[in-house]
Amino acid sequence: MNGIEIVPDRDVWRADFEARVLAAYRAAGCSEPLAGALRERAVRGIEDWTVATDGTGWIAVELAGGDGDGDGDGGGTGAAFGRIHDLTAVRGRPWAERWCAERGAERVEVRLTGGPGAFADYPLRGRNMIRAAAERPQLPAGLTVRRLTEEEYPGWLAKEQAAYVADIVRSGALSPEQAKAKSDEDFARYLPQGYRTPDQAFYAMEAEGQVIGTGWVNHGFLPGVTFGFSLEVHEEHRGRGYGRAAMAVGEWATRQGGDEAMMLNVFGGNEVAMRLYDSAGFTVLEEFRSIDL
């Protein structure tokens, strides 16, 4: 295949790949425990990857299905898709895309650290972003935070699920049917006991006697990291500075849970949120991009 050959002994490649992945997360400002945990996540299922070389570098690809991994990359949809896990070979991308297509993949996905590189033309589907939380974060004046009640939870959950599906579809990653399937799987994975799932915290944000937004965070998501699954300001209250206030609530919740950094995901197409997170000092940890075949 144009001088590209499958690598039978992958030890040299794997050592090189893991070192590069670890270096990328360190460069993004991750602590050693966090960088190590992210590396372990990045190599999950590595035994099932196909590795090839053209003599100039490496290619690592995988054909995936409907199991999904919950990392914001569109898995769990029931449709076959390809993943390019590593690409340093000069002529590797066409080969990798063809390899996926020949095995029935409908699209190809990549998870990237350190910028889009050779995949700048792949549409952006989402970003994981991270920022250290202030040691003693203060809630904005006039804003109070309380626990969401168990009675409020079902209505909140229905709205969150609908918003999640809409975000996925808006990003262009999946069809509405695929997005609904992914939503069902992800909520079942992260909230197996619903309101009482351990390490999950749900908040209501109030101002001027009204609930102006809600929050959902997962403490200990990764070493020293609270993941902000949702920090939502209700539409009728937007444009009044509450978006930045919600970021402060996320910092406060992070420290309440004993963590040091807050991580969140923003979907492609949500330019308003991306600008907010950029201005609030979040660093892009990973990008998820994909293209239809």
From TrEMBL:
Keyword check for Transferase: yes
InterPro entries noted in UniProt: Acyl_CoA_acyltransferase, GNAT_dom
Molecular-function GO terms, alphabetical: acyltransferase activity, transferring groups other than amino-acyl groups
Top enzyme category: transferase
Keywords annotated in UniProt: Acyltransferase, Transferase
Annotated coiled-coil segments of the chain: none
Keyword Acyltransferase carried by entry: yes
Domain of life from the UniProt record: Bacteria
UniProt-listed Enzyme Commission number(s): 2.3.1.-
Name of the molecule in the record: Putative N-acetyltransferase YycN
Phylogenetic placement of the source organism: Bacteria, Bacillati, Actinomycetota, Actinomycetes, Kitasatosporales
